[in-house]
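Margin note from the TA: students keep mixing up input and output lines. Inputs are the sequences; the output is the structure of the whole complex. Example:
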Amino acid sequence: MHDHAAEASLFKRRALFTFVCVVILLGILLSNLYHLQILSYTDYETRSNDNRIRVVPVPPSRGLIYDRHGKLLAENQPFFALELIPEKVKHIPETLTRLSQIIPLSAEEQEKFTESLKYHRRFKPLTLKTPLTEEQVAQFSVNQHEFPGISVVAGLKRHYPHQGLLTHALGYVGRINDRDKLRLQQAGEWKDYAGTKYIGKQGIEKFYETLLHGKPGHLEEEVNNRGRTIRTLKSVPPDPGQDIYLTLDLELQKKAFELLDGRRGSVVAIDPRDGGILAMLSSPTYDPNQFVHGISSKAYGELLNSRSRPLINRATQGQYAPASTIKPHLALLGLDENTITAKTRIWDPGFWQIPGVERKYRDWKRWGHGWVDVNTALIGSCDTYFYDLAYKTGVDKIASFMQPFGFGERTGVDIFEESAGIMPSKDWKRMRYNQPWYIGDTISVGIGQGYWTTTPLQLANAAAIMANKGKRFVPHMLKSIKDNTSKIDSPVDEKAPIVLNDQKNWDIINESMMNTAHKSRFKDAGYTAAMKTGTAQVFSVAEDEKYDAETVDEFLKDNALIIAYAPYENPTIVLAVVLENAGWGGANAGPVARALLDEYMLRDSLEFNQ
Amino acid sequence: MSPQNHRPNIWQRMHIDLPLLLGILALMSFGLFVIYSAGGEDLALMERQLFRMGLSLFIMFVVAQINPEVLRRWAFPIYIAGVILLLGVHFFGEINKGAQRWLNLGFMEFQPSELIKLAFPITMAWYISKFPLPPKKRYLAGAGVILLIPTLLIAKQPDLGTSILVAASGIFVLFLSGMSWRIVGGFIGSILAMLPVLWFFLMHDYQRTRVLTLLDPEKDPLGAGYHIIQSKIAIGSGGMLGKGWLDGTQSQLEFLPERHTDFIFAVIGEEFGLIGSFLLLAIYLYVIGRGLVIASQAQTSFARLLAGSITLTFFVYIFVNIGMVSGLLPVVGVPLPLISYGGTSMLTLMTGFGILMSIHTHRRFIDR
């Protein structure tokens, strides 16, 4: 049994023993401290004093962005901010009151400042107000002697002088966030961002971040024991980011912007000779400058929730049924596979039926086109002709023929915001929906409807390949990089051309497109052109129902499309225009294409005349 | 013990031991001063630390109200729960800074090893005090099993610091129970014999690096040795009187890493010198002394062993932390108790002090 008295006294002996051990061990700690702090004091003091060189990173200035004619698209604007060093200001509230008589400080600004003051090192400057107007800078400078510890500092801020005009192509920079930081760390580039606050978030600004950013420099400063700089020992200047020239044509972009006038839609123009993008507009747009200094959550919420979805780059991410704009390509396939010849004629009664099936596929012209061959089928955009052609060709042959034209895959344009669109095939439908392919699906594909979707950039690119008779380039926006005083042209990425069984087939189709243009929209143009319009159903109408624009919800109305190029003989510009829910392609997208080509083809002669 | 004509005063009725409380408050207030300096005069940091101090004082107060008998009865179930949670961490825990120590409970993250830190000495004291003391050898096997399971589970996480603390708290119970000196000697001998096994089979690469770094920090001054070198410079350059509060260049110019958490002692050494360090050690010694007095005056073996183990574990914190910061021991993640910024260890320690106060104020003043 327990002997309580003995146990207690045993414990006391052991406790006393451990206490002695504790004293000895603390003594060892203390003697080690004595060794460090007294015996080796001078040694460690010297080493501590040597620890006084602080390296301050100096961020590089970001490269500028110009259009093809050297017009500035993105610049760095100086801005001024008012900074206060808490340690040097005796009565901060009183100082703020006096200061607000010279420079207006809202109650909100003062409150925010007082709050952040609590969590701030006393000897480090804290921003009081930004940005200051030049007038405010001047007013403060005159009175500076009354405010020791407060000073005006200058910095550089990204600015997009054309506001929303180029937002989706250029993108914008924004403050580096945790995700950016992680990505840079993983790429081993984080050290280059010491002192940098902004990074490309979208578009060209993001894609060419490494070119535009540059390499930071640094200052080696000697600091005193309060962390204040005494003098600069060494200065390594930063290596500024490179200026770049884009293939964009600012005037053409402006014209597109004016023509769309905020309507939902997109314009892409390409120079078919090298794949350089002349204009890339997604409408409606927004001002990228509000993202540079941080957009308010209210404004961002409005952009995000807007039914017009301005944040999406419609030119590269908008996926539209191409509708009749791909009839030239289908006709080319028919000719090259000998499914049809230039002379093949069919009778169009206003509808088409799969042999032996009752269901009628309607032509847009209810009474039919009568006898049509490939030329008149393209000019009149005869649906029946292409129902028949698609039926005879089969979807897999269509898909494999269209693939080199860039349908169903990313074009590889130099921005990250790009979608692939869909080029349907039997395998694709099996994979995507786990369903078999029906003949009816093929018939829809024959008029560029059904599962087939494209981006406006893909449409323009495919039209450029048509105009080029098979010559292919990767569409791009980077034209050249400024190197000191000269420009280094960015290499053009040419892909292997499409070679037909009979190269003459290119001419047949292009001629029909030229006929289409000159029989309608380009009848009186002062130059030669070629085109094809399209009207895409956004929702399907039952077989015998009539589509009535008056009764259909605005967002369910037909999309208007057009592809066009000029001049016919030796094309220098190809464009694709998509207007969402605008109605007929020829009537709505047509005038936009005409005005844009007029601008591009005739402006030199206009300037010459002036 | 003689019968006393005892009229409990207000503190005793609240189950608070005033001498111990004063020591704790002295350490906490000193800690606040140092954190203000080490944290770059950040008031938000101070606010959070003050909140934790208030919370842990409250917890201490609550624990002090619980009769030690209740703890004795619940010791084993809590221990089992703790081991199950540790296994839970092993299989479902979140990986944080390369170590798997946390269990996500949905609303908060929880470190079961902290629960074990408390439950373990209670269990050990419960187990040993069931038998007449000094314990017979045959009971030691059971104690060994109770000790090894959580220690190994925690070491596997890997959390060397905590497993040292847990193992130490168990060994203290055994030692204080009057284990014969031969066994103590044999035990220490077998630990020494285990060291090569530990080195080659159980330790992670980073732990081995830490030991090698301790032996020769100058070998890798910008890599693994950086912490130790900067910390020794900070302490050494403090001299006799220190550079003064808020004036330590090593800490203020941010050469010293982890300066408000595990390495806070370096800030004390730099800004308050040998005098300040000595003063701190003196307060610690006072608290340990008071803890051992409480243990010696306890009336049951269970209470004595538990109080003694809690007090000595507190000392292990101090010794391991200061030893590491001043370059005597390898770097293990043990905070400076009641001074370092952070909440988890403070809550655990203060719960321990609550148990001490409970033991001291729940004595029945009767003659045996």
